[in-house]
Structure formats: C-alpha cells, structure tokens
C-alpha cells in the first residue's frame, strides 16, 4: 500500500491518495501498478441541472455532508468512478474530492454548464467558441487538476445529437479538446485525459468515434470516448438484441478507452441491471466499463437513491439490484493488463474514416480565438486550485434509510488508498485487499470523528428536480 502526502495536508496529518489513472492505447491504466482500470461507475448530479445556477453558491461537489453520505453508500455499492455534469469552479471542492478519493472513487468531470457562455451552442459553434468560454473551461481545469482521483474531463456531451448537428460541430469539438490538452500540458503536472460523451445513435456513433479519435498530427484527438447507451432494457434484452455485439465489433480496434458514460434503460422499472453481467464479461473486455445513469432520483426516474430536501436519503430497490450485479464482476479479468490493447495507435485522420454523407470530414481545426494562447502559456492566475485535505469526519451525519425504510445507523466511510471494488470481489494480487474487507486497508482511524458543516444539509433544498432527460443535459 502506498501513501502519498499531498501538499498542505501535511499540516493536518497524512492524506492517502489513489494512484492517478492514465490512458495507454485502448485501456485506462493505474499509472503506478500498471493494472488495467475499468470504470464501475454512476453518474452523480443530485438536483440535475438545477444544482448549479448563476445565483447560488453550491454544486454537487461542494457539500461535504452530502458527499460523505453518498461516498459511504457508493463504497458499499462497489463504485470506483463518478461522473458529474456541471460544477462551479469558483467553489471549494477540496473536502468532497478528498472524501471520494478517500473511498477509492475517481471523478470524471464535464467542463461545461448550461449557463450562457459556458458551453458550445451546437446550433452556432463558431460564435460560442470564444476566449471567455475557454477561460471558463481552463478555470475548471485549474480547480480540479490537483486531485489525484480526477480521472478525466469531458470536453463535450452530446453536442452532436443528429446528422444536422454533425456537420459544423466536429471541428469545434476537436478545437476545444486541443485547447484543453494544451492547457493541461502547460499548467498541470500530469497528463489528465480529455474526452467526449456521445449520444449512441447508431447512424453516427462510429463516425463520431472515428472523427474524434484519429491522429490529426496535433493535440486535438480525444483521449477516451464515452457513449450514452440505453439499448439494454430489462430481462427481455440480450447481448444481441441490445446490439452489444455490434459495439464490440465497432470498437475492437479502438485506439482509446471506450466506455458507457451513461447506461441503464429504466423501462421496465424497477431495474434489474442484467446488462452489468454482459458489460463486464470476457466477451466485452474491449470496453472499459460504464457509468449507470444515475445516482439520485429525479423527475425522469433513473435514481438509485431518493434524496430529500432535508438531505436524508432512502435507497431504492435499483441500488440493491445493482449491488447484486456488481458483486459478480470478475475483477481479476478486468484488471489484467493487455499489451495488445495498450499498444494500439490511432489511424491518421482522413475523410475515408467517415461514412455518413452528412457527417463532417473536415479535419482543418479552427484556430484558437485571440487571447487563448496567452491563457495557455501563463495560466489563469486568479483561478482557485484545489488539493486534497485530510478527511477527519468519516461518519455520515445525514439520515439514511434502506429500501424497507429502516434507518441505517453507524454509516461511515472507510478511508483507503486503493480503487474501490464491489463487495465480494477479490483483487488480483494477494498483497491487495478489497477496500471493504475492512481493517486490512488500514487507515479508517477517525471512527469517532464528529461530523461538521451543519448548515450543509439545507443546501440540498434547492435541488428542485427539473425534468431532465439524459439528452437534456446535452451541452
Ligand atoms: C482491426 O484491425 C485489423 C488489423 O489492422 C483489421 O484486419 C480489421 O479489419 C480491423 N477491424 C475493424 C472492425 O476495423
Ligand atoms: C422520495 O422523495 C420524494 C421527495 O422528497 C418523496 O415524496 C417520496 O416519498 C420519496 N420516496 C421514497 C420511496 O422515499
Ligand atoms: C476470472 O477471470 C480470470 C482471468 O480471465 C479467470 O482465470 C477466472 O477463471 C475468472 N473467474 C471466474 C470466477 O470466472
Ligand atoms: C487484448 O486486447 C485485444 C485488443 O482489444 C483483444 O483482441 C484481446 O482479446 C485481449 N486479450 C484478452 C486476454 O482479453
């Protein structure tokens, strides 16, 4: 086991840190051990888009009490990654990021928000790719680049949602990725991956992948490719009817990691998540796992957990069903490194890669708006930069209830430096322990620590569940 000492945390005591994950060919890889890293994740945006606005001072990673509640439940569930869709980079995320780090959970973050000037408008990408927009994106990078459990950034989510939007937008998507990667190369101390989250619409899924992954002789390629895929619906579905076999074929030569950035069809409901077995099976190792949509119950009815305005939470049966499915995952299979997969390189960009007539085959990427070069070379000096802090409050202060309504008392997080794993799944090497086999992972010392931030619970009250489909988050 490896302990890292992170910056100022020295003053507060030892801070454990997970190993950063990097991209090698088709796989995510633990940069220290070399083991493969496969995403076992959930999408995390309690409150939906309403969780962030120009007039409030919260986002989903700024409330330590809520983060402790959710991290404890996710640690039991077996999650190793969350994705959050929008954050306010001016807020302090040190506690929440340290809490998720402490339970072995990585974070993939969208850099965009629904707010004006903080996303590319798919109906007019040229006029919204501006210096001010890139300053917003770079400020998000500054806020999160210091956390070792930051797995990567999504530069865009479902910008292309039909063939009409597949003409003008692709070069701008690569332009934003290029600027983000150049900023990271200039201002961060490790190569944080940058990718895209795509609508899985089979008439252009493959073109989107090829357009973004190919080598254009510059830094504009995606480092990973997320697919929002809802094709497996209940027990009637199978590997074939959900066309997972088509995806395996489509991505067999992928040169970057491909995973589901959203999955979990909710019709029928409650969900039984039989697609989990397929996704993590030997048949589908070409994919790097996926993120279940989504953690909290909102109006669109995809939640694993029902979070009330007072900050209390009640598990839904979907949570238990997912845990049950996760417990059967073969971690040995997933963590095995694969030299063939990690050494695949991208083909050169060429119009030959693009099939659909209406999909852009333009690889002449727009140049940076004026002023962006200076931001990249000098950094955003006024931007707050986060770093890990010591996690002292491990007990969950907010009330949590099981599916049957019974109170789950004594809920707490167990601090570890290893990626979290589902219950009952053994790790690959004998020197390691599953994070919840308890004392062997060591450092859960603060069992008596009292919870802090009593005001935090009230911040959930603004979590008005807007009726947002997955597609409505498409920014
Ligand atoms: C994958 O690459 C191999 C070797 O280059 C090639 O023969 C095969 O057709 C490719 N498969 C796909 C689905 O592109
Ligand atoms: C879920 O939360 C809503 C809103 O707080 C509440 O009306 C509903 O009763 C809750 N459902 C369960 C099963 O706890
Ligand atoms: C898990 O995967 C490993 C590696 O492929 C294999 O040897 C082992 O038999 C699998 N275990 C189970 C229970 O299927
Ligand atoms: C290694 O990766 C390659 C490329 O994805 C794949 O064809 C092969 O089946 C993988 N090997 C194992 C043992 O999973």
Characterise this structure:
Residues 420-453 are annotated as: Disordered. This is 1,3-beta-glucanosyltransferase. InterPro entries: GH, Glucanosyltransferase. Its EC number is 2.4.1.-. There is one protein chain. The protein has helices spanning 9-12, 64-77, 94-102, 125-128, 131-144, 169-187, 205-213, 244-250, 275-279, 317-326, 331-335, 339-342, 372-378, 456-459; strands at residues 21-24, 27-30, 36-37, 39-43, 81-84, 106-110, 150-157, 194-199, 224-229, 258-263, 289-292, 305-307, 313-315, 400-401. It is of the alpha/beta class. It has a single domain, classed as TIM Barrel (Alpha-Beta Barrel). The longest helix has 19 residues, at 169-187. Bound molecules: 2-acetamido-2-deoxy-beta-D-glucopyranose (4 copies). One 2-acetamido-2-deoxy-beta-D-glucopyranose binds next to helix 11.
């Amino acid at each position: 086991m490896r302990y890292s000492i992170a910056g100022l945390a020295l003053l507060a005591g030892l801070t454990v840190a997970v190993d950063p994950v990097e991209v090698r060919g088709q796989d995510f890889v633990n940069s220290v051990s070399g083991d493969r890293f496969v995403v076992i994740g959930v999408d995390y945006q309690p409150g939906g888009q309403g969780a962030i606005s120009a007039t409030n001072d919260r986002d989903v990673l700024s409330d330590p009490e809520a983060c402790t509640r959710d991290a404890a439940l996710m640690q039991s569930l077996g999650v190793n990654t969350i994705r959050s869709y929008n954050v306010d980079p001016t807020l302090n995320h040190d506690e929440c990021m340290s809490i998720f780090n402490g339970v072995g959970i990585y974070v993939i973050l969208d850099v965009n928000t629904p707010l004006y000037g903080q996303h590319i408008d798919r109906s007019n990408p040229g006029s919204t790719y501006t210096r001010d927009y890139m300053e917003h994106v770079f400020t998000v990078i500054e806020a999160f680049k210091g956390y070792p459990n930051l797995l990567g950034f999504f530069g865009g989510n479902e910008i292309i949602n039909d063939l009409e939007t597949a003409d003008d937008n692709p070069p701008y998507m690569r332009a934003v990725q290029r600027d983000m990667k150049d900023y990271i190369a200039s201002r961060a101390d490790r190569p944080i991956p940058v990718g895209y989250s795509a609508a899985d619409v089979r008439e252009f899924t493959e073109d989107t992948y090829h357009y973004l992954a190919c080598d254009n002789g510059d830094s504009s390629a995606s480092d990973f490719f997320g697919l929002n895929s809802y094709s497996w619906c209940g027990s009637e579905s199978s590997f074939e009817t959900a066309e997972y076999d088509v995806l395996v074929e489509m991505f067999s030569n992928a040169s970057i990691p491909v995973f589901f950035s959203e999955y979990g069809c909710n019709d029928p409901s409650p969900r039984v998540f039989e697609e989990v077995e397929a996704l993590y099976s030997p048949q589908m190792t070409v994919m790097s796992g996926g993120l279940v949509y989504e953690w909290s119950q909102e109006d669109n009815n995809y939640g694993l957990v029902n979070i009330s305005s007072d900050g209390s939470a009640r598990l839904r049966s979907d949570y238990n069903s997912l845990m049950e499915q996760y417990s059967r995952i073969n971690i040995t299979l997933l963590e095995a490194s694969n030299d063939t997969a990690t050494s695949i390189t991208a083909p050169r960009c060429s119009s030959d890669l693009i099939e659909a007539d209406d999909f852009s085959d333009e690889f002449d990427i727009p140049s940076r708006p004026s002023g962006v070069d200076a931001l990249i070379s000098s950094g955003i000096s006024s931007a707050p930069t986060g770093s890990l802090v010591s996690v002292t409050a491990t007990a969950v202060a907010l009330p949590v209830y099981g599916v049957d309504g019974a109170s789950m008392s004594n809920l707490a997080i167990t601090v570890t430096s290893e990626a979290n794993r589902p219950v009952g799944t053994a790790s690959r090497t004998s020197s390691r322990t599953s994070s919840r086999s308890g004392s062997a992972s060591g450092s859960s010392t603060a069992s008596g620590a009292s919870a802090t931030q009593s005001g935090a619970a009230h911040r959930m009250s603004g979590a008005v569940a807007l009726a947002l489909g997955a597609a409505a988050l498409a920014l």
